[in-house]
Amino acid sequence: MFPDGVTSSGAQGTLTNLSVQVGTSCPLGVPQMEMNETYQLIVSPDNSQAVITAQEVWGALRGLETFSHLVFNSAPNTYQVRSANVVDHPRFPHRGILLDTARHFLPVGMILRNLDLMAQNKFNVFHWHIVDTEAFPYESVAFPDLSKKGAYTPNHVYHQADIKRVIAYARLRGIRVIVEFDTPGHMGSWGLGQPGLLSDCFYDNKTVNPLKNIVDPTKNETWSFLTTLFNEILSVFPDNYIHMGGDEVLENVKTCWLNNPQVQNYMNQKGYGTDYTQLENEYFNKLLNMVQGARNNTKVVVWQEVLDNNVNAPGAIAHVWKGNTSTEMMEEMANVTKAGHYAILSSCWYLNYIKYGNDWGYINNSWVRERGMYYQCDPTGFDGTDQQKSLVLGGEAVMWAEFVDATNLIPRLWPRASAAGERLWSDPAQTTSADLAWPRLHEFRCRMLRRGYPVEPPNLPSYCPQPWDPDYDFDDVSNTMSTTTPSGAAALVASSLLSISNAVILFLAVRLC
Amino acid sequence: MFPDGVTSSGAQGTLTNLSVQVGTSCPLGVPQMEMNETYQLIVSPDNSQAVITAQEVWGALRGLETFSHLVFNSAPNTYQVRSANVVDHPRFPHRGILLDTARHFLPVGMILRNLDLMAQNKFNVFHWHIVDTEAFPYESVAFPDLSKKGAYTPNHVYHQADIKRVIAYARLRGIRVIVEFDTPGHMGSWGLGQPGLLSDCFYDNKTVNPLKNIVDPTKNETWSFLTTLFNEILSVFPDNYIHMGGDEVLENVKTCWLNNPQVQNYMNQKGYGTDYTQLENEYFNKLLNMVQGARNNTKVVVWQEVLDNNVNAPGAIAHVWKGNTSTEMMEEMANVTKAGHYAILSSCWYLNYIKYGNDWGYINNSWVRERGMYYQCDPTGFDGTDQQKSLVLGGEAVMWAEFVDATNLIPRLWPRASAAGERLWSDPAQTTSADLAWPRLHEFRCRMLRRGYPVEPPNLPSYCPQPWDPDYDFDDVSNTMSTTTPSGAAALVASSLLSISNAVILFLAVRLC
């Protein structure tokens, strides 16, 4: 059970202090894409010392999380810590989870609990898909009717104070909040509180299709509305990036743009004919210019179609979600980066698609979107140049909420998302085998469970032992989840254990900034 | 929103009393297969009276549940009840949920919460698949080593007091507890605490297969052990029925019976040669005789293979679990009943198989086991005589626990199991359409959620309104889940509403017996 020469009571000293040394003072603002998450963690058996060193506080947070993974409850009320010398930094700067609060509403408390789990898994981006066709829960100061009429009920609204709370909570965990206001499609709920915003739709020249879902980009009123709204949004969400959506426009183009006489008239005047991509590109060029000009340093993420259609958006990140097979997904990544765009990948991490079995790393030899194998996905696993691969900023696990709300979010998302988390943080050479990851994932799932989060069992029949149970296997957890390092500099001195005092345990609950 | 002429404040009187009239005194024992669940419920607008009449207390419990479904929280702190005249009884006497506490352990509290939800959905059998290959959490008085060595850990054990608590809790909700001790296969964990019980297994004549999983039925010691153990089990579990398992024996026959020289020797002596079914039948004939003789009125349920193989077991219920397509499932039911056996069906209700979408009533036009459509399954939907159909006693939704534990049981099982519940309780003519059931299911899911159970959203994007929200649709809920009746006698006078006093609300929390 224990490494050679060590028993659960065989600690080589007592750790009474964990020193955290940060090179720069605490930032006043939120973490940004450029944040430095590098840290060094030394837990030394020689002098019973533990030190975390980091250039920025964000690295120190990651180091504290790793330190907590080294702590074991080796007997009732007895804690020990594994000695270690870890030099660690993330493989990718953008490691996200998308939550969709439009298909089903999520109470703020559930969002906060999910932020806890994200931090435990070293995710650093909460992509908040806050509104969609079905509901508009964002409370706008400038346009209060948007949520008054577009939210499911007055109970299903994120007030300004709620949003501030989410952003502050995320910041303390080194997590960015990137909000998405998806346009020009997926806007059905916007029209309820802002009449005239959406294009009228027609099955043919005469028959009205009542399901409006796409903006009317031809009206001046649309632009004054969007300008005011996005100015507000950029003042509420401090991340430099904003996600501008842009997916699945084609679904509404025929009935709402091409069959709409006013829109068609505008397209004819512009010489677009029936080429909707020219209208869409005009829309996005105006929109992105407006947004990027509204606040210094504003940058955008868009669903890949926007860039596939050659909108002019220098510096934009393409959010890749297309491709049903691994081959198709990698072709999408190759194409997007070949066109010179930054890219993040979600195609392989559609965690809303559930299936029977341990889908985080297994299911089927053919790796397709609906069959899991999240651990097998590598965002740079495409044929391309080094230059192309340097454009890959990371990825996001997505949890579209057609069948998800506060009742099932956490057990459904975790620990399946942990598989994506490890691939996004860790050295690819050390994270190619689901078989090797399995014991780590099992141990880490039990750790999250003991912390009070109902994360589901990822394995075949199993149980979470108390760490002091005789069959608890210390060897299996010598590499904790998400702490393998790109540089390979991690050294967990598994044969050395230190007792740990309550003072250190308590420290982990203390804010650094 | 409201029925014609009624507003949310338009109550036609105030209900201050709910009278419950039961024809027989409260039983001292537990409910049994023969329990009478018929009831009449009258909520009358004329004299502001509500009466439940039932022959037995079990019917009164069902009537109270239905009454609770008629109560609406029509404004904050204001309750109203729909007037009604319901004559109701279940379509099938056996309406079960199988929980598997061997693949993952379930704490007692989680089993109790599931019993609450079963009662709310008018299920009346908790099929407790308590042990299996992976773990033996049942604490035996006669053989304490079975759980000491066969349970995952000492924390993963059902003590005798736990079992008494579960049975008492179920009884108060009119729910039978049928325990299953699956033999002769699926017994791996038994061998840990009872050496010599399982057959030695061999890949060939010499190479040992260490994975023992099937009993050695040829030893006298086996029979003295089984006799003592099952005598104990029958004294612990008071239901007249016990589930004796018997599935998937073939998986271990080759290596553990046919390749085992001692077993093969025995089979040769008996003249069975290599026909394992003769040995299996001998085993079951002895076992069932022993069990049925150990306690008056003991009857058995067995997985269908036992009866398919022509074991002599008069009065046994065949638990049908085979068939991947609806055609195959119905052929299994036809075959089993043609052979004269009682039958319950689970093949179509394998709720452990999850998939993306609203699988309770939809997914795919081809109805196969892994694709949901639980609402479409009718246990008598096979070609057969009336005599055959009269042998169908009901069905069970099963939740095998390879990937299920306390973290995800409730949101994964409910309200998907509600679809099976309605088909098992209600008139088949009134329950053929998932489209018609959808609003009922949605309303009932929200009701379970308000009662504090995290049951997941069964639908596409949606939300649970407060009942007094202006878009709450009373019309959609005029037929509450599981109260349509076989006789068609239900009459919910939807245009009449009564206010309801707190005295009546509180009554629903009071024990009848």
Automatic annotation (TrEMBL), chains A, B:
GO CC term, one of those recorded: membrane
UniProt keyword terms in alphabetical order: Glycoprotein, Glycosidase, Hydrolase, Membrane, Signal, Transmembrane, Transmembrane helix
Reaction catalysis annotation: Hydrolysis of terminal non-reducing N-acetyl-D-hexosamine residues in N-acetyl-beta-D-hexosaminides
Gene Ontology biological process terms in this record: carbohydrate metabolic process; ganglioside catabolic process; glycosaminoglycan metabolic process
Active site: E248
Origin: domain of life: Eukaryota
Domain Glycoside hydrolase family 20 catalytic intervals: 92-427
The keyword Transmembrane helix is annotated on this UniProt entry: yes
Enzyme Commission designation: 3.2.1.52
Transmembrane stretches, start-end: 488-510
Occurrences of domain Beta-hexosaminidase eukaryotic type N-terminal (ranges): 10-68
Molecular function as annotated in GO: beta-N-acetylhexosaminidase activity
CDD domains (alphabetical): GH20_HexA_HexB-like
Gene3D superfamilies documented for this protein: Chitobiase/beta-hexosaminidase domain 2-like, Glycosidases
The keyword Transmembrane helix appears for this protein: yes
SUPFAM superfamilies documented for this protein: (Trans)glycosidases, beta-N-acetylhexosaminidase-like domain
Protein task: Responsible for the degradation of GM2 gangliosides, and a variety of other molecules containing terminal N-acetyl hexosamines. Degrades chitotriose.
Family named by the database record: Belongs to the glycosyl hydrolase 20 family.
Entry protein name: Beta-hexosaminidase
Organism, as annotated: Plectus sambesii
Highest classification ranks of the organism: Eukaryota, Metazoa, Ecdysozoa, Nematoda, Chromadorea
